[in-house]
Description:
The chain is α/β, with parallel strands linked by helices. It is 39% helix and 21% strand.
Amino acid sequence: xxxxxxxxxxxxxxxxxxxxxxxxxxxxxxxxxxxxxxxxxxxxxxxxxxxxxxxxxxxxxxxxxxxxxxxxxxxxxxxxxxxxxxxxxxxxxxxxxxxxxxxxxxxxxxxxxxxxxxxxxxxxxxxxxxxxxxxxxxxxxxxxxxxxxxxxxxxxxxxxxxxxxxxxxxxxxxxxxxxxxxxxxxxxxxxxxxxxxxxxxxxxxxxxxxxxxxxxxxxxxxxxxxxxxxxxxxxxxxxxxxxxxxxxxxxxxxxxxxxxxxxxxxxxxxxxxxxxxxxxxxxxxxxxxxxxxxxxxxxxxxxxxxxxxxxxxxxxxxxxxxxxxxxxxxxxxxxxxxxxxxxxxxxxxxxxxxxxxxxxxxxxxxxxxxxxxxxxxxxxxxxxxxxxxxxxxxxxxxxxxxxxxxxxxxxxxxxxx
Length: 417
C-alpha cells in the first residue's frame, strides 16, 4: 500500500477519535492529554502526507514512462514469435492458431476488419541475427514506425518515413507563414507588424491497396516444415518492398497507384532542374548548394542522392584531367548518401540516353517523403481456384499512400546523359 494511503487512513482514525473526545462535556485529564497527543500527531501527519505525495509522484512518473514504452516493446517481442507457418496451415487445413500468433491475430481483428487472417507488417522482416526495435516518436505525429521491414530499400535510404496508420486519414500540417523578424528603426519606433501563422495540410488517404499473390503447393506444405515460414516471409516481404519502393517514386496516381514523387513533382511543389549534359559532380554539388541556400540542409552530409546504375557507369568512366580520380569518386567522397536503383527511377530514354536524379534532405527532423501503411497485411485464401491440385493460393493486401510535406526538401535533375 502507498504511504500516502496509510497516512490518509490514520488521519481518518484520528479525526474519529477527536470527534468522540470533543463531544464529552467534562473530559478527564487523561482524555485531555490524549486530545493533545492526537492533535500533534495529526499536524505531523499532514507534513508526512505532503512528502509522501512528492515521492510517489516521481514514482508514478517513472512508472508512466515505462508503461508508455512497454506496449511497443511487448508488440515487438510478440512479432518476433509470430509464425507464418501457422497462418499457412490455418488457411490450408483450418488448424487453430496458438501462442503469440493467435494473440496478435486476435488483437489485430479487434483493431480493424479483415477478410482473411491479418499478419502484422513487423512479422514479415527477416529476423536472422536482428534485434527488433520498438516504436519511436515521429516529429510530426507520434506513431509506431516500421522502417526496419524495408531498412535496405531505396525509399528509406532516401529519407522516406514509413508510418503505420491504424484507421482513418492522416494529415500533416506544414507551416507556410509565421513570425517575421525585424529591427526597430529608431528609439521609439515599432518593430515590423505581425504576420498570420498559416499552414497547409498534406493528407494521406487509404485509397490505394497493394495486392501480392502467391501459390503454395501441397508438397511444400507437407515437406518444407518450419523452413516454409522463412520462405513465405522472404517472398512476401520482397514483393511488397519492391512494389512499394517503386510506387513511392514512380506511382502514377491513377489505376489504383498512389502519386509518386517524380510524376507528382508539380503537385508536391518539387523543383525540376534541367541539366541536359553529362552527369558530373559539379551538377549535384550545385543542387546541394541550392538546398543550403534555402536553409533546407546544413551541408553535403545531409543530402541524399538517388541515381540509375547507368549514370554511375558514365561518371566512373570519366576521369579528371591528369588524375586517376573519376567524377564518381568525387561524388561519393563528399555527398552524404548515394543510392543506386533500377526500381525507383525509370530506365534512360532518348538519343543520347538521358536519365533522372532525385535529391532529398531532412530538415529539422522532418522527413522529405512520408509513406503511410494502414493496419496489417490482410492474408486471404482462395479455396477454389487451385482446389483440384491441392495448392494453396494466398493473396496479401495492404493499403498505403504517399505524400511530400515540403517540396523544398526535394529536387529532381533531368537530362543527365
